[in-house]
Amino acid sequence: MLLTEANATPDRPETTPSPDVLASPRNLQSQQSSLWTRRQQAVCVRHAFKQYGSKRNPNHVLSNLNMTVAKGTIYGLLGASGCGKTTLLSCIVGRRRLNTGEIYVLGGRPGTKGSGVPGRRVGYMPQEIALYGEFSIRETMMYFGWIFGMGTSEINDRLQFLLNFLDLPSENRLVKNLSGGQQRRVSFAVALMHDPELLILDEPTVGVDPLLRQSIWNHLVQITKDGNKTVIITTHYIEEARQAHTIGLMRSGKLLAEESPQVLLSMYGCQSLEEVFLKLSRKQGSNCNVTELNISNNVSLASLHWGRKDEPVYVTDESGVVGLNFHQSKEVLITDSSNGLNHYEMNGRAPKGEKGDTSVDCDDCSDCCQLTTVGKMRALLQKNVLRMWRNVG
Ligand SMILES: Nc1ncnc2c1ncn2[C@@H]1O[C@H](COP(=O)(O)OP(=O)(O)OP(=O)(O)O)[C@@H](O)[C@H]1O
């Protein structure tokens, strides 16, 4: 489907409408039905707008973007460097907020009851490495396992699997002494640690050798097979995304297409996804209006040299969403209190100048930032002791 809202959603089953709905005008019934279908998706983004910069000099990064990620699928999000993939993922995991638009994650809005964000229903591997350098691999896994409410023996089992699967070095090696590629794999392992329902991976295969890359994809295919797990993945290797169930081709702040790889290839009569993307980009380029030209991310796709932004990236500390950090962070969380979106600091207080309720609650609240669980206390204690100890001198 091109340049339109995705509709890969099941129809609502026949149920007896509530008295409210019976009494309402017809249009309310259809609104309710579409809200229902949005909530059935793993992720559903509607009419998303996001800009950086000032009002006078805005950098429009997301521009009326719609995205539908069905449960139990792998969704490959592709686009040239700077087109807004990381920004979109950050909004999905609740690290940033949209200017306008709606996001539903596992049935709720990020930061609200039942959304699973923040929480252990979601595993997020951010693009940047943001681990505690003075932790060993094992300590890193223990720390995040406890944060996610896992027991020590469960963590140990999972650790052995992940060390093997991701071809990691000895569990006793300190993170700061690992190569960049190894650190990225530790970061990936952290996202997989608690076996989340929704995995959001921002370029997990960068710097990974082709054999391991293939086994990572095999694993993703395997975990989504029974329909209970969903993966959103961005990658520089456009052809590897053929293994995804759905591909979202992103350019200039929107999705040019959202379809299965096979449908895209046959629809555009192309041999490769890269060709499809070029065709669509040219088409969009020729339709471009003034507003779109103002968008900063019209990077030629031909080169596909997808570099990195040099902006510092905010990392949520101890939130159970991102949790990876070289330094202590006061990253804000987002909650949605009756129609409005608010920022919150990790201590639950609204930042200066912002009003709001301090509750950030969700159904599976044992891991929410609002509650301090035994595991979380243990993890924080371990973190502070280790960091103090290893930084002596
Ligand atoms: N915190 C920020 N403040 C201002 N501008 C930002 C910020 N973060 C990103 N941008 C800008 O927003 C645009 C989209 O960036 P984003 O990181 O989302 O792109 P991307 O598609 O993930 O790129 P890449 O593939 O290189 O990681 C870029 O022009 C970038 O410079």
UniProtKB/TrEMBL annotation:
Pfam families: ABC_tran (PF00005). The keyword Translocase does not apply. One of its GO terms (molecular function) is ATP binding. InterPro entries: AAA+_ATPase, ABC_transporter-like_ATP-bd, ABC_transporter-like_CS, P-loop_NTPase. Keywords: ATP-binding, Nucleotide-binding. Residues 43-277 form the ABC transporter domain. The keyword Ribosomal protein does not apply. Gene3D superfamilies: P-loop containing nucleotide triphosphate hydrolases. Residues 1-32 are annotated as: Disordered. This is ABC transporter domain-containing protein.
